[in-house]
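WARN no homologs supplied; continuing
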Amino acid sequence: MSKRVDHKSAARIVREQLAAEKRRKRTIWTALIAVFVLVAGGLIGWMLFLGKKANEVHTPASANKDGNGIVTGSGPVIVEDYIDFICPHCKSFHDEATPAIKQLIAENKITFVTHPVAYLDRFSTNKYSTRASAASGCAADGGKFTEYEDVLFDNQPAEGTAGPGDDQLIQFGSQVGLGETFAQCVKGKRHVTWAKKVSEDATEAGVTGTPTVLVNGKKIQGGSAAIIAAVAEASTVPPTPSAS
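OK structure emitted
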């Protein structure tokens, strides 16, 4: 009788040990799964955060209300130009029309909005259009957009070549009085996503090429004479919503 009892007792102990081992393994696996879920969730959250941060648009100082152009002046007529810093026609327009535009600004006749798009990255080997546009945003932060724009066009690279590198863009900034804050802005690519936004907004507004000039939302053809005439005409007509 005692042998049967001992046998049953031993069997019960074995069953209890096996059950305890199963519970222990189940607990371990549950803990491992919980840790995995927490780690995976954390990684996904971190990746989403990094993705959001990478796509975050930092709007430069002196931007218009839509954040896609840099404003100079405060006159009643809105003149906008869409330019790409590697576009040779944009340089020709800039060189010819800038004196008249600056005069109109000085006379408080216009608010001038420049949209530095990056349509022509394919015409350089180092995405110069995007980098130059972003650097101009950094210059706007330093209150030197117009001066920096002049230097960029003075040093415009030929299409199909490597445009100035970031170190050269920083050197251009030093020529107009921009310092370490500007340099860090360029190196950190702070306004690269802004350059993309400017281009995307321009495309949505129907701008298909550069330079494109609007006076109170109306596209005009020609240089300084056409701008002066259009501004004079617009001065007698209430402004209409534009692509700014």
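The chain has two domains: 1-56, 70-234.
OK
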